[in-house]
């Protein structure tokens, strides 16, 4: 029988708790972002009824539509690749942009946030594995962005995000999570204006337990909540 969204959501929470237990962490420190990019209003409503408040979207248009419907009942995170020409429409409409992976995008966010008179929270997406050629800043680019952001009064860097390469065996990508955590900890020891390395956003349906064991502060889980049955 197909489990309900509520059962699956609670199952993910239970697994986060178990992973925290293994790592000696407090489960309250882990934020679960339910990735709702493939589902509609009905599924999101069900998740909200079970207590979920953070949702992740990878398209600007979908995020804006859903945000307009749910307003203050839910927070929407932008987790997908963001084109510079879409920045203007999303500024101030999202809790956190997880996917800032270039200087150009960073500067556009500063420009549009300043025009809107707000401060936008972001994460830098880092390509830790070097295998994912698509998106993500290199280590050097990450450092350049953090330094450049010292002059950006309207952008607050709140941490780092990564996507591990897909694998059947999450143990194979444990090192990716460990490395992102090390980058966060390392950067936290230095002081930069407009940067506060609070979060690592890492771990998806197939690998979030390993990510939590390695110190994930935010996990982005979609199919395990909205699709998979077990
Ligand atoms: C789709 C997506 C997720 C969630 O993936 P699942 O495997 O469905 O949990 C997480 N992060 C990003 C950036 C995504 O695009």
Decide which structural class fits the backbone: alpha/beta
- For the biggest β-sheet, the strand order reads 3-2-1-8
Bound molecules: pyridoxal-5'-phosphate
Please state the second-level CATH architecture.
Answer: Alpha-Beta Barrel
CATH topology: the name is: TIM Barrel
Q: Cα distance, first to last residue?
A: 9 Å
Can you tell me the CATH class?
Answer: Alpha Beta
Question: What keywords describe this structure?
Answer:
four-stranded parallel beta sheet, TIM Barrel, 230 residues, binds pyridoxal-5'-phosphate, alpha/beta
Briefly say what this structure is.
With 230 residues, the chain is of the alpha/beta class.
Characterization of the model:
This protein has 230 residues and is α/β, with parallel strands linked by helices. It has one domain (2-226): Alpha-Beta Barrel (TIM Barrel). Helices cover 40% and strands 18% of the residues. The strands form two sheets. A four-stranded parallel beta sheet has the order 3-2-1-8. A four-stranded parallel beta sheet has the order 4-5-6-7. Helix 6 (139-148) links the parallel strand 5 (120-125) and strand 6 (155-161). The longest helix has 19 residues, at 5-23. It starts with a helix and ends with a helix. 44% of the residues are buried. The model has no long low-confidence stretch (mean pLDDT 95). Residues 35, 37, 58, 79-80, 163, 204-206, 220-224 line the site of pyridoxal-5'-phosphate (PLP).
Fold topology:
Blueprint: H1 5-23, E1 31-35, H2 41-49, E2 54-57, H3 60-70, E3 75-78, H4 87-90, E4 97-100, H5 103-116, E5 120-125, H6 139-148, E6 155-161, H7 174-188, E7 195-201, H8 208-213, E8 218-221, H9 223-226
Parallel strand pairs: 1-2, 1-8, 2-3, 4-5, 5-6, 6-7
